[in-house]
């Protein structure tokens, strides 16, 4: 009887759905034509054509229409468009006659009211012509748009593709969580059936659209993005993912007609599009600036999904055995939220192998608990391992930095460094770690190609280098070379960057911090250098005639922790070797700066040039002497080698019983030059053998 009653209820539901469908269908057929007719408009000429084509309008001679159109009362010269479904009431000219007989005669001979539907039917040909003209105008524009859409190929590296992955991943996660819950908790499914239907078919639409996106997603081949639609289609159709995508959009909802809409189990094929969510996670991990935090969040999400699924399975298994039938199964609670929370609690305790749940009673319950324990051990063991690896990776930089500190501490203790200096070293390390300066930039960027490394260096240091006076207005190639050679340095409070009288081998650019120009006593502050300042640029150019030469003229000390960029004289000379014109310009610009500050000795510069030339000539003579000495040594070594070779050949002749008479071992030619007898001796040996 219960099954028969259930069958009747289903028939009533189907009949109610059919009646609702027919009602809305008739309403649609009734309203849509009227709305469409409301948008159809006519000009005066078209209305006159309608009147000429119509044979149903017989107008009374007694009507006078001196200023109006007989059909729709349009003014004679109007060009405005009037809706066809909005007829105008005709104006009549009242006569002088009165009385009932006259009014009846007028009523009998009155013209029939114009039929709007008939006028629209008669103007169908005109409307077809209008549509043809409209399409002829719009078609080229739409054609171009359709061509552009047809040529659209998505690159996996584009932001629009990444955002699409976010949308489709949301749909997949919806099916993974709510679809499984609705299949197990009947109250959840029945309480919002209409909402679930809307969300389900919205996700189905996204799935179908995602299949089209996959067909138009390019891939790299030999470093180039493939945009050939046939190649993209063939590549996608050959993958296993295409089969899964095809299965995920099969219309299994058609079985709703026989089983009812409260069977979400039919939609479990939507769970097969999981790879899009995994792809989104992989790309997010690559894009984000906090990969470790994202990995932990992703891992927590996986754990919650597994616990959620197991909770739903526990509820379904309890429902199959009978809710509240024993102490292990789910007790028949009253509210949906309380039931789900209880199942989630039971699933968490079981999968984490904590226990403390009611013991199983039946054999089926024992098997279910054993299966849950095995799944919990395997899954959570791998999860704990991944968490440990993540934490190790997060602390790898800290561990390496701590190892460096320990090595320095051990060295200072071994060498009995003073306590004060040891504290300064430790404070310097603390500053590096606190301000995230403990990473070696060159070591980090070593794995990048030279092109990308140069672009990063330009992005970081180019603006700083442009602040230097002598490098302003330099060509871009030289600046790029110099940017790659800048080295960061950190100075502690009280450290001297340079002292008066020292030979200048580097120039410095202040990135952050405050430096003081102090006197010889170390206490008097003569000037203050802040961020963006630079010093030492003239000394590394070694400009002739400079009164200060290449020596420092002041004491510069760091007041606090200071971050500086250093450019050595050797690196500058190496960079300028490829830019001789830029070298000349830099020297001239430096000479102008020295002249402006009164630090250039013009006369001394010429004499200095002569002295430098003589010094270079002396160096060349010394090089020539060294080369001659080396050449003589090589000649002696060659003669010694020839003598040894002669002795070995003689010993070989005696060993084979030959009687070869060789004078001194050398033959003299007509010029008196000596030549070794190697070839002659070898020829005689070959002949006798």
UniProtKB/TrEMBL annotation:
This is Cyclic nucleotide gated channel subunit alpha 2. GO terms for molecular function: cAMP binding; cGMP binding; intracellularly cAMP-activated cation channel activity; intracellularly cGMP-activated cation channel activity; protein-containing complex binding. GO terms for biological process: sensory perception of smell. The lineage of its organism: Eukaryota, Metazoa, Chordata, Craniata, Vertebrata. Pfam families: CLZ, cNMP_binding, Ion_trans. Keywords: cAMP, cAMP-binding, cGMP, cGMP-binding, Coiled coil, Ion channel, Ion transport, Ligand-gated ion channel, Membrane, Nucleotide-binding, Olfaction, Sensory transduction, Transmembrane, Transmembrane helix, Transport. InterPro entries: CLZ_dom, CNG_cation_channel, cNMP-bd_CS, cNMP-bd_dom, cNMP-bd_dom_sf, Ion_trans_dom, RmlC-like_jellyroll. Residues 610-644 form a coiled coil. GO terms for cellular component: intracellular cyclic nucleotide activated cation channel complex; plasma membrane. Residues 679-689 have a biased composition (Basic and acidic residues). The keyword Coiled coil applies. The chain crosses the membrane at residues 21-42, 161-181, 193-209, 254-272, 293-317, 366-391. Residues 667-689 are annotated as: Disordered. Residues 470-576 form the Cyclic nucleotide-binding domain. PROSITE patterns: CNMP_BINDING_1, CNMP_BINDING_2, CNMP_BINDING_3. It is found in: Membrane.
